[in-house]
């Protein structure tokens, strides 16, 4: 019964990596650093799992013909996979672990015989390879649409933008009545739990994200599918799993089946995670195996064992490569090749950019941005002002779930560069507060990064339209000298009295498009000052001024 | 009668239909009756409680934190030519010492300006050393708690950190409280334009309140001084206050009656306030203006650095008219100390 303890070790590994993943996700936020007034940086290796992700690295390399900082670390996963197979999927991947956990829950639809049948290899498991091929081809043509399906993008986007904010709300909904209780014991208990959760997972303020409901439901649906078919997502869609499966073709570790002692009791199939036919008599599907070791652990006869360097005869009896076929390969190639031109022929990127598409500071010009952004939501999770939101249509269909600044929700904090620090692919290139140039070292010869330009709606602005004092926008304008300047004007109010007040104007050569004016404007529903993307420094063509300082 | 009525006489007939006993029927009726009565009762009770929702009742929470006047001591003092801690020390000494303001077991709340994500050199927030020195002295006077807090404009964690105030105050042992959105209470401010506003709780639960503003330029008013610092006790949509800023400031000054005001003029932001950022707009004045007359202090600083007379600052006139102090600081006799 050699190796029968392996599933337990695997379980420990899965739990540790899941906890690590969640801890990194939760700490992807602004943390104060005691004892310093210096710049604020992200604490801890919050990009770790993305840097480990060979799919992100490979697509990033295909799309940019280079590898962004840190992505070389993906070799830490890729190289061992070459030797050992898809251990990553079974032992490390938190998305796999969550499905594994849900898949083990008792389910009416997955019992005994049904479960055994569901765990036999199915031809539809090759869909993921088609997805992978299409994603790689699309990346080559400059679109990182694969980010919609990368498991870490999926996880951070779903948990960071939907599950955690929902948890935040639920915790407050439950604890606030407790904390307001007149009974001291209940009040104290509520307060203690609140303080503990605040320390562990909650943010200072409730975050809100566009499409949080959609992202949350998609995520729950993917997990719930495991109740019916174990790891349906891993087996059928996950492009990272497909990549690792393809790479594991040559691995030297494999499943040894002892045909003589196997009595086809099906116990191995009951617990198989990958759907790779570990049972005697059927060919083992090497590319599908997640190395979870459940088959070894559950075999009552010791007929199954993972061995290094097995004889060629044994290897001849199994299927090492993805069971793809020429037709499906071509389907993937064609899908990838067709989808990018189709998307680019759409409106959105060329002459019809959405005026409200404000990219975060450090973001590259739109084509370069889309060839890098994997829609992981790290930037949105870390933004302390909740300003960055996943797009729905603002960036075209191709840009679905990429980040956009919504000043009405939150403006861009002048010396903050956290989004550029967490971006794993360089869609938001890492910048320093000095490079951002809004406050730090103003007056030096640096060019500030501009997100857009502010404009006044004089029909709504209080001093312009209604003879009422205001200029909160001028107060908040963070650059110095201020981009909003005022002119004293004589106006007549409704009673016919002459009144002197200050009317605001924008100097586009100073405006950096941070959106603080729009955020602070008292006309909350439809601000009288608003930022549009014209003048954003990332785009040489989207400019107003002939000669901008 | 038997409960098992209709016992099959033959095999393979229909299965026996179990009949209910009278006892079971009665019990079932009782149960249903109970549920029905409960539902009806609950329904009536709930319908009686159907009241149109009204906003939370604003509470009366105004407190006077001032101390008794002392004819022997100045109501306004100006200290010049020292480092921040020395300025605080001399200013408090001129005003009679910290023990005049803080009694043993007092809960003291310090209200520096921590509004913006700026460093001390940029002079948009109160100097952290000023705050730290006041914290230290409050402990010396036997305070029970010393709390440092503000409701920032920019992201509070950034403001508290980059202002240096969080670190400096904690180093002296103060409690630094960030503006948690849940720690606000709706308060009846009783003002002319400020009626019901959410106020940050620590300001409502203090025995003594120190106003620690920084003097800065301000586009709308000309200068943001001591009374403008009370914006930082408010939550809600304070961007509406600009529409009647002088009346708002007078209302705030009537509501918040501080124990003492220590205005940081160590570095003064002369232009592009109140946010600033450009060091060219900051000038080193190495000064502190302090006292127990908040109107006189604002009037003095407005005149000294921006040459603004009280006529240009209607809120000072309003506050004076309400008996909160005098704009005529010269008449009070400013006690001046030169440190270097």
Structure in a nutshell:
The complex is a heterodimer of chains A (549) and B (340). Chain A is 42% helix and 8% strand.
Model description:
The complex is a heterodimer of chains A (about 550) and B (about 350). With about 550 residues, chain A is mostly helical. Chain A folds into two domains: about 5-30 and about 40-160 and about 220-320, no CATH class; about 345-549, no CATH class. Chain A has helices at about 5-25, 50, 55-65, 75-85, 85-90, 95-105, 110-120, 125-140, 150-180, 185-200, 210-230, 230-235, 240-245, 265-270, 295-300, 310-315, 325-345, 365-370, 380, 420, 435, 460-465, 470-475, 515-520; strands spanning about 255, 305-310, 390, 405, 455, 485-490, 500-505, 530. In chain A, the strands form four sheets. A two-stranded antiparallel ribbon of chain A has the order 1-2. A two-stranded antiparallel sheet of chain A has the order 3-4. A two-stranded antiparallel sheet of chain A has the order 5-8. Chain B has about 350 residues and is of the alpha/beta class. Chain B is built from ten helices and twelve strands. In chain B, strands 1, 2, 3, 4, 7, 8, 9, 10, 11 and 12 form a ten-stranded mixed β-sheet that branches. A two-stranded antiparallel sheet of chain B has the order 5-6. Chain B starts with about 20 loop residues before the first helix and ends with a strand. The model of chain B is unreliable at about 1-10 (pLDDT under 50). Classes of the chains: A mainly alpha (about 550), B alpha/beta (about 350). The interface between A and B is large, with 45 and 45 residues.
């Amino acid at each position: 019964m050699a190796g029968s303890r392996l599933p337990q070790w695997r379980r420990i590994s899965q739990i540790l990596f899941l906890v690590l993943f969640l801890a990194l996700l939760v700490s992807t936020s602004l943390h104060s650093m005691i004892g310093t007034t210096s710049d604020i940086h992200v604490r801890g290796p919050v990009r770790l799992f993305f840097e480990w992700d060979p799919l992100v690295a490979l697509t990033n390399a295909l799309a940019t013909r280079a590898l962004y900082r840190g992505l070389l670390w993906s070799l830490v996963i890729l190289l061992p996979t070459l030797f050992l197979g898809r251990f990553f999927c079974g032992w490390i991947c938190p998305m796999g672990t969550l499905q594994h956990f849900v898949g083990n829950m008792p389910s009416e639809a997955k019992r005994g015989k049904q479960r055994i049948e569901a765990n036999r290899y199915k031809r539809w498991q090759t869909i993921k390879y088609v997805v992978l091929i299409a994603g790689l081809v699309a990346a080559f043509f400059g679109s990182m649409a694969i980010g919609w399906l990368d498991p870490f993008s999926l996880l951070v986007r779903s948990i960071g933008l939907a599950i955690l904010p929902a948890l935040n709300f639920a915790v407050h909904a439950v604890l606030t009545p407790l904390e307001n209780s007149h009974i001291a014991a209940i009040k104290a208990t509520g307060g203690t739990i609140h303080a503990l959760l605040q320390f562990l997972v909650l943010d200072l303020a409730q975050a809100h994200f566009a499409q949080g409901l959609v992202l949350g439901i998609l995520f729950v649906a993917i997990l719930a599918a495991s109740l019916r078919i174990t790891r349906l997502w891993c087996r059928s869609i996950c492009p990272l799993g497909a990549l690792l499966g393809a790479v594991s073709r040559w691995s030297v570790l494999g499943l040894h089946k002892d045909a003589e002692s196997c009595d086809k009791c099906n116990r191995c199939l009951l617990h198989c995670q990958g759907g790779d036919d570990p049972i005697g008599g059927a060919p083992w599907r090497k590319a599908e195996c997640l190395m979870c070791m459940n088959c070894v652990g559950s075999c009552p006869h010791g007929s199954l064992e993972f061995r290094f360097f097995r004889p060629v005869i044994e290897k001849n009896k199994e299927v090492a490569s993805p069971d793809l076929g020429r037709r499906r390969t071509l389907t993937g190639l064609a899908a990838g090749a067709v989808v990018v031109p189709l998307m680019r022929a759409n409106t959105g990127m060329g002459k019809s950019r959405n005026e409200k598409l404000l990219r975060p500071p450090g973001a590259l010009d739109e084509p370069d941005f889309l060839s890098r952004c994997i829609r992981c939501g790290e930037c949105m999770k870390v933004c302390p002002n909740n300003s960055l939101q996943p797009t729905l249509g603002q960036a075209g269909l191709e840009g679905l779930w990429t980040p956009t600044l919504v000043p009405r929700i939150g403006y861009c904090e002048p010396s903050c560069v956290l989004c550029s620090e967490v971006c794993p692919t360089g869609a938001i290139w890492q910048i320093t507060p000095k490079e951002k140039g809004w406050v730090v070292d103003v007056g030096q010869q640096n060019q500030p990064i501009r997100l857009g330009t502010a404009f006044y709606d004089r029909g709504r602005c209080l001093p312009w339209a209604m003879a009422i004092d205001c200029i909160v926008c001028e107060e908040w304008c963070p650059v110095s000298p201020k981009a909003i300047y005022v002119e004293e004007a004589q106006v007549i109010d409704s009673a016919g009295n002459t009144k002197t007040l200050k009317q605001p104007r924008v100097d586009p050569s100073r405006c950096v498009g941070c959106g603080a004016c729009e955020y602070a404007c008292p006309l909350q529903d439809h601000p009288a000052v608003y930022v549009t993307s014209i003048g954003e420094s990332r785009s040489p063509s989207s400019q107003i001024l002939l000669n901008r300082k | 009668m038997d409960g098992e009525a209709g016992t099959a006489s033959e095999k393979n007939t229909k299965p026996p239909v179990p009949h209910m006993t009278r006892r079971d029927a009665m019990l079932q009726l009782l149960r249903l009756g109970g549920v029905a009565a409960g539902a009806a009762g609950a329904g009536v009770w709930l319908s009686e409680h159907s009241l149109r929702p009204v906003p939370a009742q604003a509470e009366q929470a105004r407190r006077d934190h001032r101390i008794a006047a002392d004819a022997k001591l100045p109501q306004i003092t100006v200290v010049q030519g020292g480092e921040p801690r020395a300025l605080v020390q001399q200013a408090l000494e001129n005003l009679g010492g910290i023990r005049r303001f803080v009694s043993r077991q007092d809960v003291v709340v310090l209200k520096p300006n921590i509004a913006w994500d700026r460093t001390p050199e940029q002079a948009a927030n109160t100097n952290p050393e000023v705050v730290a020195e006041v914290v230290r002295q409050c402990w010396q006077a036997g305070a029970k708690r010393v709390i440092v807090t503000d409701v920032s404009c920019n992201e509070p964690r950034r403001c508290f950190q980059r202002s240096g105030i969080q670190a400096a105050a904690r180093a002296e042992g103060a409690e630094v409280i960030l503006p948690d959105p849940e720690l606000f209470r709706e308060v009846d401010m009783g003002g002319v334009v400020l009626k019901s506003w959410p106020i940050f709780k620590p300001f409502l639960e203090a025995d003594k309140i120190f106003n620690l503003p920084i003097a800065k330029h301000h586009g709308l008013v000309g200068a943001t001084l001591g009374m403008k610092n009370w914006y930082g006790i408010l939550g809600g949509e304070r961007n509406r206050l600009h529409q009647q800023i002088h009346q708002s400031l007078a209302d705030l000054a009537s509501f918040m009656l501080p124990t003492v005001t220590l205005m940081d003029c160590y570095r003064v932001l002369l232009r592009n306030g109140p946010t600033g950022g450009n060091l060219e707009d900051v000038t080193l004045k190495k000064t502190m203006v302090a006292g127990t007359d908040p109107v006189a202090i604002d009037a003095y600083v407005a005149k000294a650095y921006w040459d603004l007379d009280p006529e240009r600052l209607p809120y000072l006139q309003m506050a004076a008219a309400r008996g909160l102090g005098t704009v005529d600081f010269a008449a009070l006799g400013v006690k001046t100390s030169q440190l270097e």
